Amino acid sequence: MTEKGPTVAAGRIQLVGESSAVSRLELFLDLIFVFAFITVSGTAASDLTVASLLHGVVLLVLLWTCWLSYAWLGNVVRVDRGVMPVVIFGLAALILVVGVTLNETFSDKPGGLHGPLVVVVCYLVVRSGALLVATVAVWRDPAARRTYPRVWVPLLAAAPLLLVAGLLPIGTFGADGEAREWVRFALLLAAFLVEYLGIAIIGVGWWRVQSVKHWTERFHLIILVAFGEIIISAGTGQGVGWASPVTWGVVGGAVLSMLLVGVLWWTYFDIARFSAEDALEQASGVARARLARDAYTFLHLPMIVGLILLSLGLKHTFNNVAFQSVRSEPALGLFALYGGVALYLIALIAFERRTIGIWGRGPLVGLVLVLALAPVAARTPVVAQLGLLAAAVVSLVLLDRTVFRVRHRALHRAIEPVTERSTGVTPKELFLDLVFVYAFIQVTELMTAQPGWRGLLQGLAVLVLLWWAWCSYAWLGSSFRTENALARLLLLGAAAGILVIAIAVPAVFIDLPGGLPGPLVFVTCYGLVRALNFVAFWTVARKDRLFRGQLVRLAASAAVALALLYAAAILSPSSDDPQAFEPIRAALWAAAIIVELGSGYLLNARHWPVRSAEHWADRFGLIILVALGGAIVSTGASVSNRAVSVPVVVASVLSLVVVAMLWWVYFDVDATAGQRGVQRLHDGRRSRLALEAYTYSHLPMIVGVVLVALGLRKTVAEVERVAGPVGWWDMSHLTLYGGVIVFLLADQAFWWRIQHRVRGLRLVAIVALVGLTAVTTTVSRLAGLAVLAGALCAFALAEAVGTRQLRHAAHDPLVPESSAPPQR
User: Fold this and answer.
1) Average per-residue pLDDT in the chain?
2) Which of 54, 248, 328, 756 has its CA 20 to 30 A from that of 491?
3) Mean pLDDT, residues 802-815
4) Exposure b/e, 433-466, CB count within 10 A at least 16 = b
């Protein structure tokens, strides 16, 4: 994700170039919206009624408008340069507060701040903040000064309605809270209608799409975020961190859910994404701006609404499968499931029609099948409902490959120039990463549910195996670009395996009655994920004798590790005696982990290529972002169902500051320096550096982030309940500070491996944090969190001043590599 086009400075704000790409800071912002989307679907699913569905749609429009402001802003100014990171982090904190407060948008909970007003005020600040930055950035242009003020008109017209909704007194309509909720709903709906009608009325004469690459990629990523939210919602329907039995129904539901989500992902990222980008490139001036507004600003909204409705339906389905009872109306659950897919397909058809002028035959047939099967599904069990829907959606792909194959292949040939320009991380890799978000969240919840060192070590053991599984797919993507149908199916199978693993995480060390053996489910799915990776490698490299030899070595070590894990699973105790065979099981797990991690040194680095340094560095940078996003989701989820109070808001903001500073530590300089370090080497030396600096050094970074997530979750959840000192052996305090220290140590090891020198300021910060860990045991949780956030900010400021030249060098454009991973 490098800048390839020139930028123009506007004060301390830089304007984007024509070929600017999405920055990592924007990806970080998107992960906060993951939490907000999850809150919307979770709130609606907790009491599924017509009112909750309508409220959820309005909340989605609110979130979409917030997100849209920053998609548009990022196409005007570089949000990762100058003073903009500080501004974006501040506004991100407000978005997090919105996410925490969303469940009080229509009905204020007693005992805290006035929730509706908090949501409205934060929304207005977020929207006006984006407009203000853009206005300041272009104000030197006389033409912009004449046209830009009209951008404020829709927001200023809607603001009075929003403020009335937020300030609606509690005593309005007497004791009839439901009437008050409907009045707020009407006011918010009217405000958003005013905004979107205003956007249509003022036209696009004031705006130009500065970078088509940035604009289209921004929307592609938010679609991926919505797919990630579906995966998390499907899993959380089984229960986040709950040690509930894993039944055949749950496993079947997970597989069908992944099949459904994967095929819907395919419908967007197979042709529609690239065709639309090419159409936008071909347009210019006002025509391009109008196409960007219609196809992306307007038509992507119903896509997002449809996907979130689908996530709500999947959550309802898993609730029924796992717990056999849920407070909801069955017809509404079916409507969310089938209606969400239908709305998504309608929007996709309109999107293709608006951008490339065709009627998508596959989506049209799929839409007809979905609508036709809905009445049939109403009389079947919930898993059968999901199966019928998956069958209808799979028909889209089958039709494109058979009946409509001539047209489908012609469309593929037309977009080949666009696809060949794409050298970074592919959408299917990002899709897999989003499945790991839920897995990381589950690991955090496992450690939360089992406080103490035993639960901590168990969670870390699971995390190491998840990391090694992820690394195996990172190696695959870096060695070969595999964009054929078989590669996508194999990755889809791996994603389904990871989803089942994540669902089984709470039961991985104990065999619960009433379901399948949790340890065996975990190990079997882990083995499946590893096997699919070897199959993918074999299909693309079977003719390379030297590479096959490397693959056989890895497969042998993986088989040994699986045998050890199966032995531990067979010895797993029941819930009546959880301590049985514990020393033996712990030894078997430790041996399996050592075998897996040690297998990296069985490779001959000369025959295990890293063909693209950009792809490799971006791949690991994105998994760091995924882990940080998981920390935000875990932290926000701990308080999203409570009345919003001042301590909760302060703790949530401080938590975001801690996570943002970890982002800064890695992405300010180190990520780019790592890419340059890999890029300047070749052959075996490059592969060895990639193995040691990334595969191994990034593992403790992920461990550190998960520990921070655990500490933040417990700290924020108990910030109001426990007011006294935390004490010396408080687990949340130790994991919070310890996680930051582990992350900094791992980042220091990464820096030493790529630069062969130590950064003294980092060592000073680590020593200072060790001292603060002891000092802050005498203060409250909130005070300890504030001290940590303040210390990290001071460290970041000192490093920003001390490494100014290094940062300027890191921000220089990277030289493109001549060889990307070969297509197979």
Assistant:
1) 84
2) 248
3) 61
4) bbbbbbbbbbbbbbbbebeeeebbebbebbbbbb
Mean pLDDT of the region 323-333: 57
3-state secondary structure 408-426: HHHHHHHCHHHHHHCCCCC
Residue 521 and residue 247: Cα distance in Å, rounded? 10
Q: Would you say residue 377 has pLDDT above 70? A: yes
Do the beta carbons of residue 382 and residue 325 sit within 8 Å?
Answer: no
CA distances to 229, 381, 431, 491, 494 from 435, rounded to whole Å, are: 9, 26, 7, 11, 10
**Could you give the CA distance from residue 434 to residue 241 in angstroms, rounded to a whole number?**
18
**Structural tokens at position 517:** 């053996």
Q: What DSSP string describes 750-783?
A: HHHHHHSS--HHHHHHHHHHHHHHHHGGGS-HHH
User: Is 211 exposed, middle or buried, given 0-12, 13-18 or 19+ CB atoms closer than 10 A?
Assistant: buried
Half-sphere exposure of 506 (CA within 13 A, CB side): 21
Name the band, by pLDDT with cuts 50, 70 and 90, for residue 805. Answer: low
Band of residue 824 on the pLDDT scale cut at 50, 70, 90: very low
Res. 113: pLDDT tops 90: no
pLDDT given at position 636: 85
CB 700 within 8 A of CB 467: no
Q: State which H helix or E strand residue 10 sits in.
A: strand 8-10
Instruction: Look up residue 776 and give its amino acid.
Output: T
By residue count, the chain amounts to 824
Which residues lie below 8 Å from residue 518, measured CB to CB, with a gap of 6+? 245, 246, 504, 506, 507, 508, 509, 510, 511, 512, 572
Residue 690: closest CA among 779, 563, 821:
821
Q: What is the pLDDT of residues 776-798, one digit of tens each?
A: 998 888 999 999 999 999 999 88
Question: Minimum mean pLDDT among 137-151, 159-173, 637-651: which range?
Answer: 137-151
CA distance 299 to 585: 53
**Separation between Cα atoms, residue 321 and residue 47, nearest integer Å:** 17
**CB contact at 8 A, 611 and 421:** no
Phi-psi region of 730 (alpha: psi -120 to 50; beta: other; left: phi over 0): beta
Closest CA to 743 of 771, 770, 706: 706
Model pLDDT, residue 749: 95
Residue type, 321: V
Measured CA to CA, the distance from residue 364 to residue 342 in angstroms comes to 10
Report the chain's terminal Cα–Cα distance, integer Å: 23
pLDDT on residue 330: 66
pLDDT at residue number 604: 67
**Does residue 576 carry a pLDDT above 80?**
no
DSSP, residue by residue, 244-279: --B-HHHHHHHHHHHHHHHHHHHHIIIIIHHHHHHH
Indicate whether 116 pLDDT > 70: yes
Element (H, E) at 15: strand 13-15
Q: Count Cβ neighbours within 10 Å for each residue of 268-305 and write b for 16 or more, e otherwise.
A: bbbbbbbbbbbbbeebeeeebbebbbbbbbbbbbbbbb
User: What is the model's pLDDT at position 696?
Assistant: 94
Mean pLDDT of 610-618: 86
Pairing assessment for the beta strands 8-10 and 13-15 based on DSSP bridges: antiparallel
Backbone angles phi, psi at 72, to 5 degrees: -65, -40
Average pLDDT over residues 395-400: 86
Q: What are phi and psi of 329, to 5 degrees?
A: -100, 120
Q: In the prediction, which pLDDT does 577 show?
A: 60
Q: Percentage of the chain surpassing pLDDT 70? A: 89
DSSP state, 557? H
Query: Under a CB-based contact definition with an 8 Å cutoff, are residues 168 and 180 in contact?
Result: yes
